[in-house]
Amino acid sequence: MAAMSDPMVPVIYRVEKFQKETGDTFTMELSPAEKKSVFRFKPGQFNMLYVYGVGEVPISISGDPTHPNGITHTTRAVGSVTDAMNKLKPGMAIGVRGPFGVPWPVEEAYGDDVIFVAGGIGLAPLRPALYQVLSQREKFGKVILLYGTRTPEDILYKKELENWRKRFDLEVFVTVDRATGDWRGNVGVVTRMIPRSPFDPHNATAFVCGPEAMMRFTALALMDRGMPMENICLSMERNMKCGIGLCGHCQMGVPFICKDGPVFRLPRVRHILEER
Amino acid sequence: MASQPNVSLKSVSKEKAPVIIDRANFDALLQALKKRGYQLVGPTIHNNAIVYDTLESAADLPVGYTDRQEKGAYRLEKRSDKACFGYVMGPQSWKKYLFPNRLKLWEAQRNNGSFSITPTEPQTPRYAFIGVRPCELTAIDVLDRVLLQGSYVDPHYQARRKGIFILAVNCTEPGSTCFCASMDTGPQASKGFDLALTEVLEKKRHYFLAESGSKLGEEILREIPCQPAAEAEIDSAAKALEKAARSMGRTLDTAGIKELIADNFDNPFWDRVAKRCLSCANCTMVCPTCFCTTVEDTTELAGDKAARVRRWDSCFTLEFTYIHGGSVRQTVMSRYRQWMSHKLGRWYDQFGISGCVGCGRCITWCPVGIDITEEARALRESKKRSELK
Ligand SMILES: Cc1cc2nc3c(=O)[nH]c(=O)nc-3n(C[C@H](O)[C@H](O)[C@H](O)COP(=O)(O)OP(=O)(O)OC[C@H]3O[C@@H](n4cnc5c(N)ncnc54)[C@H](O)[C@@H]3O)c2cc1C
Ligand code: SF4
Ligand code: SF4
Ligand code: FES
């Protein structure tokens, strides 16, 4: 089909499941409108999602790469397109282009401790990497998830986090900026958990995703522990109109965030965390 | 003005057996292209400027006109002779044919809860570009690298590019904002054309020295009245081009320019130029290599039809880097710096070539007369000064 070969033309998918995660965040499961293709992706890749008549935005794939049936996206409604997406219902159509971008280098971390640091919606792009690590658990040392969010009400994937907490081969630490209700857990920014986190900084890889300021402080805290910059991987966010290196919007210095990223090892994007 | 760069001109090659087309037979060349089904597009005069548009014959060319260009200034004037290509170029480049300013990418049709998408078929119009300047030829090479040689290809550019015949015209009279010799893109075309002409006006003769750069170019030459060039004719064309290379209006020292820019990101120089810049985006709209685009999503009133249109965008706009919470490049300084450092620096790492071909358009069409060659020089000076401290 001609339409398939043009990377700027969306393919129609249908919303299979639509689930509210928090007040402003939802998870959708999509499947192809014309049943045939299997959607394969690597953790950290994203799709361009088109809401009919409204527009198109980049959203990371948040599902399990080892079970590629349907596509899962977790989105926070923050503006025109994501608000419209929040109003979709099962059975409705959505346009998909992708998967695009460079994935988390999960295989390159074999033998290492793996530390995931997520801020807010940043947990969504990290979840596929966590799935992959857990599916090959014996290949890694310690596996740690540090997750910080605004309030207890903003915690994503609550059920799953509970299950993860019960595992003996995964350590989960959750913190909130502001405690509400009967929260008994950690309060404070996620970077504060790094100094006492039980991993070997000389033999670890970090996967970090969240607001840019959070990523900057996380990188500094990891480096303070003695982790080499090369082992710190970040997923960057920039305005994207094409996702395939043609529209120019996502350039930050030499790299195009869409095609050379969004996942980068820190040395390649250190300037970005400072450049304006 | 800084010293002139060393220019080594490729002498007009003798192996390819250049031929002479007399002025009187020039139209035969254009008609031969038309006969092969090409639509001729080339320089015409519109609203007191050179504008590329449809040509029927050589009579539509701005014969006997020249353009005076300076920082923030452009004026057409009559010449004392009847040169066919006696001007440099207008604001618009050939990019408008290869990579249109607005292009509908697809249409969507809504039907009971779902929708379907119909992509715009890529078009291959058969344009013959008449009078492509050497710097503009390089600009097309730059666009080829950006839009055809990455991991993804723009199918519309690819289709349009396929249908083009290129008739290049070497520059014997560079404009005062030109600096192609510095950028090694002119004043003589060396590749990427089907035919390349050098216009020669002598006291009693007016002719073109023509070289072919493709099979098709050779065939066309065989179809029109022309004769093998004599040694003297080749020499006088070569001399004119050498003189042109020496009389460039401007120069830009490209030695170590990529490093110069990378190492001077925090130089206060950028604040000084930003004070004058209006962030109007003119420079990016006239530039033959700028490729940035955005998309507009529209729906018809009834809502059953939607479409996506791609249009040129500019890194000078605030929205260009908008993400939730605000734009990344908030200041004019950061946007000017993005533009110049992309053109003269980072482009090399991204695409293996300079993003600036030295056409001078951004200098002429800047309303406040910011000149990329002056700014590159100022950056270099400012670095020297800071080293002395
Ligand atoms: C690689 C990548 C992965 C992402 N993954 C997720 C995810 O998994 N979940 C999630 O909730 N969000 C994700 N985002 C952010 C998401 O794309 C923005 O929240 C979204 O574009 C906002 O669009 P809007 O129209 O709703 O907002 P508006 O504020 O109305 O935005 C208007 C326009 O600005 C642009 N824009 C605004 N914010 C952003 C932004 N943050 N990033 C890029 N462009 C923006 C878009 O082009 C948008 O159409 C990701 C962004 C990138 C670059
Ligand atoms: S200079 Fe600006 S508009 Fe031109 S290609 Fe570079 S980023 Fe795009
Ligand atoms: S930057 Fe200016 S001189 Fe260079 S190619 Fe673009 S318009 Fe021409
Ligand atoms: S999103 Fe278009 S170039 Fe990266």
Q: Could you please describe the fold and organization of this structure?
A:
The complex is a heterodimer of chains A (276) and B (389). Helices cover 21% and strands 29% of the residues of chain A. Chain A has 276 residues and is an alpha/beta fold. Chain A has two domains: 11-100, Translation factors (Elongation Factor Tu (Ef-tu), domain 3, Beta Barrel); 107-273, 3-Layer(aba) Sandwich (Rossmann fold), CATH 3.40.50.80. In chain A, the strands form two sheets. Chain A has a seven-stranded mixed sheet, with helices on both faces. A six-stranded antiparallel sheet of chain A has the order 4-3-6-1-2-5. The model of chain A has no long low-confidence stretch (mean pLDDT 93). With 389 residues, chain B is an alpha+beta fold. Chain B has two domains: 19-101 and 123-246, no CATH class; 257-293 and 313-388, no CATH class. Chain B has helices spanning 26-35, 95-98, 134-148, 155-162, 180-183, 215-222, 231-246, 257-263, 269-276, 282-286, 332-351, 361-364, 372-388, and strands at 19-22, 39-46, 49-54, 65-70, 73-78, 102-111, 114-119, 127-132, 165-169, 195-201, 206-212, 227-228, 293-299, 305-312, 322-323, 326-327. In chain B, the strands form four sheets. Chain B has an eight-stranded mixed sheet, with helices on both faces. In chain B, strands 7-6-14-13 form a four-stranded antiparallel sheet, with no helix packed on it. In chain B, strands 4-5 form a two-stranded antiparallel ribbon. In chain B, helix 8 crosses helix 11 (332-351). Chain B is globular. At the A-B interface, helix 1 of A face strand 6, strand 7, strand 13, strand 14 and strand 15 of B. The complex binds flavin-adenine dinucleotide, iron/sulfur cluster (2 copies) and FE2/S2 (inorganic) cluster.
